[in-house]
Design brief:
The protein is an all-alpha fold and 317 residues long. It has twelve helices and two strands; from the N terminus they run αααααβαααααααβ. Helix content is 76%, strand content 1%.
């Protein structure tokens, strides 16, 4: 009985996370009307990285104070090896720099519904890559889910999207971001058991932010920042603080409290929320093909999760 309230709070926080991530697509899509995607995202990453580094510093200080034990979500005493540093830099380049280039460019060029639904296939891609690397075993149910999600993407991108080149380019960029995030997620499995999720996320984000800002620097310098409205500035700050920082912390706290499988179920709701917010706020049309694609993708991800059988992998592998 004592554990029920804890799980109720975690579940409520996960619902908040779903609402934030779902609404974030429309928020940044609207902000892109005043701030180009890459400069917007560069500033968002700078702010989020700064907040993560501050949190890491506070966690280290609290742990060294020794008054109360610090959760492994925030701090571990494991030594950072040379291989860890190499992995952090590589994962930062793939999972934050390349991922965010694809994500920002994709959201700007395609519809919110397309972007969110394509992102929704991430669990399927992660599972397939995990199988290819020998980290999971799958059966017929799993492959059925993967195939169903592919069909869903076809409905969204092939049948449910406009025929213009911009939308197709955006869809392809979103697919690139899915691949990058999937590689990042799998690659981080060696670091997460040894170091705190806060440390891994914050340091990889910093490693990805530096090259991202350098790439976006020409646009950052040229843009007329005086013409940006207060609403867009608030959108940038809230997207950084809520979508990149708060939601990450909710996610890892939930993984610690109720496990990754139960936590991951909530992520399947993000595309549905994103589509609803875009339809109500941005007046994006919901075609029959997109609704059918959404059902296929969410159903495919659900079947994929039912069919997953993780294979134990040594921490040092």
């Amino acid at each position: 009985m004592a554990r029920a309230p804890r799980f109720a709070v975690i579940d409520a926080l996960l619902v908040v996370m779903v609402l934030i991530w779902g609404a974030n697509f429309s928020v940044i899509k609207r902000a892109f009307d005043e701030i180009p995607p890459q400069p917007f995202n560069a500033l968002r990453l700078i702010l989020a990285s700064s907040l993560f580094l501050t949190a890491i510093g506070l966690a280290i200080r609290r742990a060294r104070g020794g008054a109360r034990p610090v959760s492994r979500v925030w701090f571990t005493t494991t030594r950072v090896t040379a291989r860890d540093r190499r992995d952090i830099v590589l994962l930062g380049l793939i999972g934050h720099c390349c991922y965010q280039i694809g994500f920002a460019g994709g959201v700007a060029a395609t519809s919110v519904a397309n972007a969110a639904l394509i992102i929704g296939t991430t669990p399927v891609v992660i599972a397939v890559l995990s199988v290819a690397l020998g980290r999971e075993r799958i059966g017929g149910l799993h492959w059925t889910g993967a195939a169903l999600s592919v069909v869903g993407v076809y409905f969204v991108v092939g049948l449910g999207a406009p025929s213009d080149g911009a939308s197709l380019r955006g869809d392809l960029l979103m697919m690139l971001s899915v691949l990058c995030w999937s590689i990042y997620t799998i690659g981080a499995t060696r670091l997460i058991p040894r170091h705190s999720p806060l440390f891994v996320t914050g340091m990889t984000m910093l490693a990805g932010t530096v090259p991202y800002v350098l790439i976006a620097l020409p646009q950052l310098v040229r843009h007329d920042w005086a013409a940006v409205s207060a609403w867009s500035w608030w959108a940038l700050v809230l997207s950084s603080v809520l979508a990149l920082c708060v939601c990450y912390l909710i996610w890892y706290a939930a993984v610690q409290a109720i496990g990754p499988s139960r936590t991951a179920i909530f992520s399947n709701l993000v595309p549905v929320v994103a589509m609803a917010v875009a339809a109500l706020w941005l007046r994006e049309p919901l075609s029959t093909a997109k609704v059918a694609g959404a059902g296929a993708i969410v159903g495919g991800v659900f079947l994929t999760r039912l069919g997953r059988r993780p294979a134990p992998v040594p921490i040092e592998e």
